Amino acid sequence: MVKSSDINVRPVDKTNWIDFETLFQNKGGPNYCWCMAWRTTKEELKQNNPTSRKKYIHQRVSGNIPIGLLAYSHNEPIGWCSVAPRESYQRLGGNEALKDVWSIVCFFIRKEYRNRGLVEIFIGSAKKYAKRNGAKYLEAYPVEKDSPSYRFMGYVQTFERNGFKFIKKAGTRRNVMCCEL
Q1: What is the arithmetic mean of pLDDT over 101-121?
Q2: CATH number, domain at 157?
Protein backbone atom coordinates (compact mmCIF):
# COMPACT_ATOMS: atom_id res chain seq x y z
CA MET A 1 0.00 0.00 0.00
CA VAL A 2 1.04 3.55 -0.67
CA LYS A 3 0.77 5.90 2.30
CA SER A 4 -1.58 8.74 1.45
CA SER A 5 0.94 11.08 3.06
CA ASP A 6 3.39 10.13 0.28
CA ILE A 7 0.88 11.08 -2.43
CA ASN A 8 -0.13 14.58 -3.48
CA VAL A 9 -3.28 14.92 -5.60
CA ARG A 10 -3.92 18.07 -7.64
CA PRO A 11 -6.49 19.13 -10.25
CA VAL A 12 -5.14 19.42 -13.77
CA ASP A 13 -4.91 23.06 -14.81
CA LYS A 14 -2.70 25.32 -16.91
CA THR A 15 0.09 25.21 -14.32
CA ASN A 16 0.54 21.42 -14.48
CA TRP A 17 -0.54 20.64 -18.04
CA ILE A 18 3.03 19.49 -18.75
CA ASP A 19 2.71 16.89 -15.96
CA PHE A 20 -0.55 15.60 -17.47
CA GLU A 21 1.12 15.44 -20.88
CA THR A 22 4.16 13.65 -19.43
CA LEU A 23 2.01 11.04 -17.67
CA PHE A 24 -0.06 10.33 -20.76
CA GLN A 25 3.03 10.03 -22.97
CA ASN A 26 4.85 7.67 -20.58
CA LYS A 27 5.28 4.06 -21.67
CA GLY A 28 1.87 2.43 -21.23
CA GLY A 29 0.14 5.81 -20.90
CA PRO A 30 -3.27 6.44 -22.49
CA ASN A 31 -1.94 8.73 -25.24
CA TYR A 32 -4.25 7.02 -27.75
CA CYS A 33 -7.34 8.53 -26.10
CA TRP A 34 -6.19 11.55 -24.06
CA CYS A 35 -9.24 10.88 -21.89
CA MET A 36 -11.57 12.10 -24.60
CA ALA A 37 -13.56 8.86 -25.09
CA TRP A 38 -16.47 10.08 -22.96
CA ARG A 39 -15.96 13.79 -23.73
CA THR A 40 -15.81 13.95 -27.51
CA THR A 41 -18.61 16.00 -29.04
CA LYS A 42 -20.21 15.21 -32.41
CA GLU A 43 -18.19 18.01 -33.98
CA GLU A 44 -14.93 16.72 -32.47
CA LEU A 45 -15.67 13.20 -33.74
CA LYS A 46 -15.06 14.50 -37.26
CA GLN A 47 -11.34 14.65 -36.36
CA ASN A 48 -10.99 11.70 -34.03
CA ASN A 49 -7.33 10.73 -33.76
CA PRO A 50 -4.71 10.94 -30.97
CA THR A 51 -3.39 14.32 -32.15
CA SER A 52 -6.82 15.94 -32.24
CA ARG A 53 -7.87 14.33 -28.93
CA LYS A 54 -4.80 15.82 -27.24
CA LYS A 55 -5.66 19.20 -28.77
CA TYR A 56 -9.27 18.99 -27.54
CA ILE A 57 -8.35 18.08 -23.96
CA HIS A 58 -5.74 20.86 -23.93
CA GLN A 59 -8.41 23.33 -25.09
CA ARG A 60 -10.54 22.34 -22.11
CA VAL A 61 -7.65 22.85 -19.69
CA SER A 62 -6.78 26.19 -21.32
CA GLY A 63 -10.42 27.21 -20.93
CA ASN A 64 -10.40 26.37 -17.21
CA ILE A 65 -12.82 23.47 -17.69
CA PRO A 66 -12.24 20.79 -15.02
CA ILE A 67 -10.98 17.51 -16.45
CA GLY A 68 -9.58 15.59 -13.50
CA LEU A 69 -6.87 14.94 -10.95
CA LEU A 70 -3.21 13.97 -11.07
CA ALA A 71 -1.48 12.00 -8.33
CA TYR A 72 2.16 12.77 -7.59
CA SER A 73 4.85 10.91 -5.72
CA HIS A 74 7.90 13.07 -5.01
CA ASN A 75 6.68 15.68 -7.53
CA GLU A 76 6.45 13.06 -10.29
CA PRO A 77 3.03 12.41 -11.91
CA ILE A 78 2.09 8.78 -11.30
CA GLY A 79 -1.67 8.58 -11.84
CA TRP A 80 -4.79 10.14 -13.29
CA CYS A 81 -8.49 10.23 -12.36
CA SER A 82 -10.97 11.74 -14.79
CA VAL A 83 -13.50 13.62 -12.66
CA ALA A 84 -15.55 16.56 -13.88
CA PRO A 85 -19.10 17.89 -14.12
CA ARG A 86 -21.29 15.21 -15.68
CA GLU A 87 -22.47 17.60 -18.41
CA SER A 88 -18.89 17.82 -19.71
CA TYR A 89 -19.15 14.15 -20.72
CA GLN A 90 -21.29 12.41 -23.34
CA ARG A 91 -23.36 9.21 -23.23
CA LEU A 92 -22.62 8.02 -19.67
CA GLY A 93 -26.10 6.69 -18.94
CA GLY A 94 -26.27 8.10 -15.41
CA ASN A 95 -29.22 9.10 -13.27
CA GLU A 96 -30.57 12.13 -15.15
CA ALA A 97 -33.02 12.93 -12.32
CA LEU A 98 -30.11 14.13 -10.18
CA LYS A 99 -28.71 17.64 -10.58
CA ASP A 100 -25.29 19.06 -9.63
CA VAL A 101 -23.58 15.78 -10.47
CA TRP A 102 -19.92 15.19 -11.17
CA SER A 103 -18.65 11.96 -12.71
CA ILE A 104 -15.60 9.75 -12.29
CA VAL A 105 -15.08 7.98 -15.60
CA CYS A 106 -11.57 6.55 -15.62
CA PHE A 107 -8.27 5.96 -13.91
CA PHE A 108 -4.75 5.51 -15.18
CA ILE A 109 -1.95 4.57 -12.80
CA ARG A 110 1.61 3.91 -13.88
CA LYS A 111 2.36 0.20 -13.77
CA GLU A 112 4.82 0.35 -10.87
CA TYR A 113 2.21 2.09 -8.66
CA ARG A 114 -0.76 -0.19 -9.38
CA ASN A 115 -2.45 -2.35 -6.72
CA ARG A 116 -1.26 -0.05 -3.94
CA GLY A 117 -4.47 1.77 -3.00
CA LEU A 118 -4.21 4.76 -5.33
CA VAL A 119 -7.71 4.34 -6.72
CA GLU A 120 -9.14 4.73 -3.22
CA ILE A 121 -6.99 7.84 -2.68
CA PHE A 122 -8.32 9.20 -5.98
CA ILE A 123 -11.94 8.49 -5.00
CA GLY A 124 -11.51 10.36 -1.70
CA SER A 125 -9.83 13.26 -3.48
CA ALA A 126 -12.51 13.30 -6.19
CA LYS A 127 -15.25 13.56 -3.55
CA LYS A 128 -13.56 16.59 -1.98
CA TYR A 129 -12.80 18.22 -5.34
CA ALA A 130 -16.34 17.77 -6.68
CA LYS A 131 -17.96 19.02 -3.47
CA ARG A 132 -15.64 22.04 -3.33
CA ASN A 133 -16.83 22.89 -6.84
CA GLY A 134 -20.55 22.68 -6.07
CA ALA A 135 -21.40 19.04 -6.73
CA LYS A 136 -24.07 17.43 -4.62
CA TYR A 137 -23.51 13.94 -6.06
CA LEU A 138 -20.63 11.98 -7.50
CA GLU A 139 -21.39 9.26 -10.04
CA ALA A 140 -19.12 6.46 -11.22
CA TYR A 141 -19.58 3.74 -13.85
CA PRO A 142 -17.46 0.77 -12.70
CA VAL A 143 -17.52 -2.85 -13.81
CA GLU A 144 -17.17 -6.20 -12.06
CA LYS A 145 -13.59 -7.49 -11.69
CA ASP A 146 -14.07 -10.17 -14.34
CA SER A 147 -15.30 -7.70 -16.98
CA PRO A 148 -13.47 -8.05 -20.32
CA SER A 149 -13.73 -4.29 -20.95
CA TYR A 150 -14.14 -0.89 -19.27
CA ARG A 151 -11.78 -1.90 -16.44
CA PHE A 152 -10.23 1.58 -16.58
CA MET A 153 -13.50 2.82 -15.02
CA GLY A 154 -12.78 0.99 -11.78
CA TYR A 155 -14.45 -1.89 -9.98
CA VAL A 156 -17.83 -2.03 -8.28
CA GLN A 157 -16.36 -3.37 -5.03
CA THR A 158 -13.94 -0.44 -4.72
CA PHE A 159 -16.73 2.09 -5.09
CA GLU A 160 -18.95 0.18 -2.65
CA ARG A 161 -16.17 0.36 -0.04
CA ASN A 162 -16.08 4.12 -0.60
CA GLY A 163 -19.76 4.84 -0.01
CA PHE A 164 -21.20 4.52 -3.52
CA LYS A 165 -24.55 2.80 -4.08
CA PHE A 166 -25.71 0.94 -7.17
CA ILE A 167 -28.32 2.90 -9.17
CA LYS A 168 -28.74 0.98 -12.43
CA LYS A 169 -26.91 -0.69 -15.30
CA ALA A 170 -25.56 1.36 -18.21
CA GLY A 171 -25.19 -1.13 -21.02
CA THR A 172 -24.25 -4.72 -20.24
CA ARG A 173 -21.08 -4.15 -18.20
CA ARG A 174 -21.05 -0.69 -16.62
CA ASN A 175 -22.83 -0.03 -13.33
CA VAL A 176 -24.06 3.45 -12.49
CA MET A 177 -23.13 4.09 -8.87
CA CYS A 178 -23.66 7.26 -6.89
CA CYS A 179 -22.47 8.89 -3.69
CA GLU A 180 -24.17 11.86 -2.07
CA LEU A 181 -21.60 14.48 -1.10
Answers
A1: 95
A2: 3.40.630.30
